[in-house]
Amino acid sequence: MAEWTTAYIGLGSNLGDRERVMREALQSLGRNGAMEVLRVSTIKETMPLGQTSQPRYLNGVAEIRTMLSAAELLDALLTTEETLGRVRRGTWGPRTIDLDLLLFGDEIIGLPDLIVPHPQMHLRSFVLEGLCELDRDLVHPLFNEPVCELARRLGGGSFTLDPLVPQLVSIAGLIGVGKTTLMNRLATALDAETVVEPYASNPFLPRVYAGQRELALDSQLYFLVHRGEQLNARTLPVDDVTLADYVFEKELIYARRLLEPDQLALYERIYEPFAQRVARPVAVIYLQDEPGRCLERIHQRNRPYEQEITLEFLASLNADYEQLFAHWTACPIIRLPASQVHPDDQAALEHVALQVKAYVASRGQVAVG
What is the average pLDDT value for the chain, to the nearest integer? Predict the structure, then answer.
């Protein structure tokens, strides 16, 4: 006898009477003798992705249980779409009804015409938030991450994978948190290029950390010019992943901490043209640890120009990073405690690499709507 499986269906409509057609889709599924609609999330209006010159969508998530196989359930969803008048107009075209198989129990399926979990669900806030509403304990079976954590990464936004832009992944965090170490380990796992911020070559930095604040503007402009060149969107490769051990937005964090008001006013005028030329990361890893432990690592690695750094300075930077990423909407952000990526833990590294791959467009990839 077939067993019941809990599955989750993504609902979408942006043509005609959107509420009515979504209601009819659920009623049609409910009439299938091998399927029962259990609950439906809040229906939300969302902006279209891809082809944005089309009507807004209504989106939601339905929880069902079924005795059908995943393939049979997909056939039932496609039949329902066709019955309700869906006409396929390419990947991002408008649609009367869209029924996506998001999750099928904890199964992982990779067939040419059926991929479960849905390959784009981790990029859609309206999907993840709907799943969280229905079951906050749900775990993505491939990524082994709670769906509510995946939702938190998006900051309320939704994203697409674009293979035509640089696949830049930035690692952010305090001095001494382990950004460069993690970057180098991930570079091997991902076969990625690396960009290292030019700390050692900055001739002004040691004297700034030693208290010569009059050189702070020189130091910040040195970093601005070099980081702007490193992350220029026109020069970064498109076909390969690039890892950077900093996020460009840290420029303003440090400038606002180190510069006098008149210096900062000048710096901010110079900053903007550089910021407009840098590539936007497709994902950020925010590596986190207590400022005190970061200071211990700074002392252990014993770089002369860092030995004047104080705990108070690190604590202030930590607050700035928290503020930056509390309102971050530019791309998905993976918050990663440093304790979870110990240098000897290869399994943990592979887990992080799997997460990163989910936000990077592969060569020749076609977006999925």
Answer: 92
